[in-house]
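User: structure tokens for this one?
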Amino acid sequence: MTVTLTALGWDTDRAAYLRRIRTDHRPGRVARVDRGVCTVLAEDGPLRATLGGAVLAAAVGDATRLPCAGDWVLLGTWPDGRVTVEAVLPRRTALIRRTAGKDAGGQLLAANLDTAAVVEPVHPAPDAGRIERLLSLVHESGARPLVVLTKTDLAADPAAVARQLAAVAPGVPVLPISAERGTGLDPLRAEVAPGRTLGLLGPSGAGKSSLVNALAGAVVMPTQAIRRVDGKGRHTTTWRALVPLPGGGAVLDTPGVRAVGLLDGSAGLDRAFVDIADLAAGCRYGDCGHETEPGCAVREALESGALTARRWESWRRLQGEVAHETRRRATRPIRRRGKLS
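Assistant:
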């Protein structure tokens, strides 16, 4: 299959940026990163590229500046045939999670996604809290959010399950799909028109690799059967991979997500919980803490059942996490040249 950069998302704005910076380096898109070596899709085909000194220097103290699957990069070719990544072009969207550890920063999961789908299987029962957390991440990234309900052939009434998920994803389309039967795929295919990129996020065994294969019309990603004992999946994809599709566009598959910590991204949280944000706007006091204040629209919704206790507690937990991370990053020592200043 011949892949053009235009089909992968190269456009007039990116071309104009290249003219402005007056570079002789050629562009390409990162399909995969493996221990500092990038597989890059270039106009003359896929190639392997190591990281140039300027890229490594720019990432000192901030690993999110390193190339990631989905990034557009500039490539340099040396007389001995080596190819290096000399620059990472500005990202339009960036999916970043908090990494574990006291002094940890962020981990870039994917770059330049037009749409990011939270993939949740119908069995075992969908995890509402996980969906809310991942949607907060997607909203913060700038990508268009979707929820994809997979393996609907295992449900007696998949439409009912989709309606339940819609309650935890206000304003976000929920697409019930069976890759096994090939049903419900058309709305998802529309998200990967030529030049557009769809990212898939979700737990192991959610069927992300099966979705990639269904969209590609061929087996391009390995899949595994679920465990019979509990219906849960096994890790199939162990790295992030950008897969070009025959009709143009690309899909970015990610490994099963076990833990997703939020960075200081309250805007994404507000959009994921827009129902609570709208309720809070109706409180009598602008600084309402939603505890015992009179005229609290949030407490009234909880008492009437219009807002579930589960969703409220989920919002409070994530809000506390974001607030803690914001404080931590504000007091984090600045790193220069790899040392504490």
